Amino acid sequence: MNNTPFIQRRQRVLQQIGSEGVAVLFAAPEQRRSNDTEFPFRQDSYFHYLTGFDEPQAVLLLDGATQKSILFCREKDALSEIWNGFRYGPEAALEVFGFDEAYANIEWPAKLTQALVNKKSLYALWGLYPEHDKEVMAKWHSVQQSAGRRIQTNTYVPENLADLAALLDGMRLIKDDHEIALLKKAGEISALAHIRAMQKTRPGMNELQIEAEILHEFMRHGARFPSYNSIVAGGKNACCLHYVDNKDMLQDGDLLLIDAGAEYNFYAGDITRTFPVNGKFTAAQKDIYEIVLAANEAAIAAVKPNADWGEVHLIALKILVQGLIDQKLLRGTVDGNIESQAYQRFYMHGLGHWVGLDVHDVGKRWHNGKPLLLQPGMCSTIEPGLYIATADDIPEVFHNTGIRIEDNVLVTENGCENYTALAPKSVADIEEVMRG
Ligand code: GLY
Ligand code: MN
Ligand code: MN
């Protein structure tokens, strides 16, 4: 366990909240799946970001006055560990994860109460876990009442309920070296899974069988879970943006859109590739595919420090709209169609989102009504698409053509790095991989 990145992040938070601040955050709740079985536990992303400690029922307290990080966690329990597995306990957790103090989790309310005295700001992830909000507010009120009764002279308590999410989101927006290495690995594993899917796909197979191939490749490379439910959408299913039923048979002549990414060591990959079920694009499929590919490539080429995300979005949009006009799927001018938003019939989502600990990662895209300027260390998806459903006014060759091409890019000092480029996306490369 390399605890250095986590210690450094806690130190950065402690510096920012200052000597008159205190911050508290909680592990994710365990989720019941059915009767007495649970979903696999997945630590809360903020909690992982600051601790690397991935057990449930844990609390982190950051005390600005002492600049100490204090963990509260489950105690060692021989019987429970026989049934449910290893737990660190406070003593080992302190050592392994580099906390300044560690206690049994039942002690957090009392320690928080003490830490609140003579602080000005109480930072928490308000709204994330309402049950914990209530517990924290109860402690805050109790300290306020004590101070009101002047039990201690010159005692004051936080007047400020401060937003820890705003602080952490700003940090999480710019990935550090530890995160970049993990994101690249997640991207690489995700790309390998898309290659495997291209190699295995044949007409007559079921979407679910292809999902199995993808998960197999993720796990083979140490990524136990996907970072979101995999979309394996043949033919018309690709026109449903969040299709996750993955239950239909793949038909000769159809396209297959796969949007799937591995979560590696908590970091998300998020790749979409679209390819023909039988390994060969029809002329009409190729025409639409090339439009989306050109938009994907032009947008990636425009990603660099100080690029305006709104501009990058517009570069891709103009290519998509021009392509739709060329194919006579839209009439009029590019600007006219953008103005009227007529293109939204075929392109109804944004160009991308941040990617990190969460597949749709935290951090603003806009600031004071203006798009954010890209900076080194930001990681974004670039995912233009066109979705042409069946309709009377659309030539039949285009019916049920859903195409998205999605990569993950890291903004670097000089431009960007497409770290999911390993997944083939030119028509020639895809057809070659599928020929085997
Ligand atoms: N897989 C979800 C997305 O592409 O945003
Ligand atoms: Mn995405
Ligand atoms: Mn995706």
UniProtKB/TrEMBL annotation:
PANTHER family per UniProt: XAA-PRO AMINOPEPTIDASE 3 (PTHR43226:SF4)
Molecular-function GO terms, alphabetical: manganese ion binding; metalloaminopeptidase activity
Annotated Aminopeptidase P N-terminal domain residues: 1-133
Cofactor(s) this protein requires: Mn(2+)
Family membership noted in the UniProt record: Belongs to the peptidase M24B family.
Catalytic activity: Release of any N-terminal amino acid, including proline, that is linked to proline, even from a dipeptide or tripeptide
Top EC class, one word: hydrolase
Presence of the UniProt keyword Manganese in the record: yes
GO biological process: proteolysis
InterPro entries given in the database record: Aminopep_P_N, Creatin/AminoP/Spt16_N, Creatinase/aminopeptidase-like, Pept_M24, Peptidase_M24B_aminopep-P_CS, X-Pro_dipept-like
The protein's name: Xaa-Pro aminopeptidase
EC code: 3.4.11.9
Gene that encodes the chain: pepP
Organism annotation: Neisseria brasiliensis
Domain of life: Bacteria
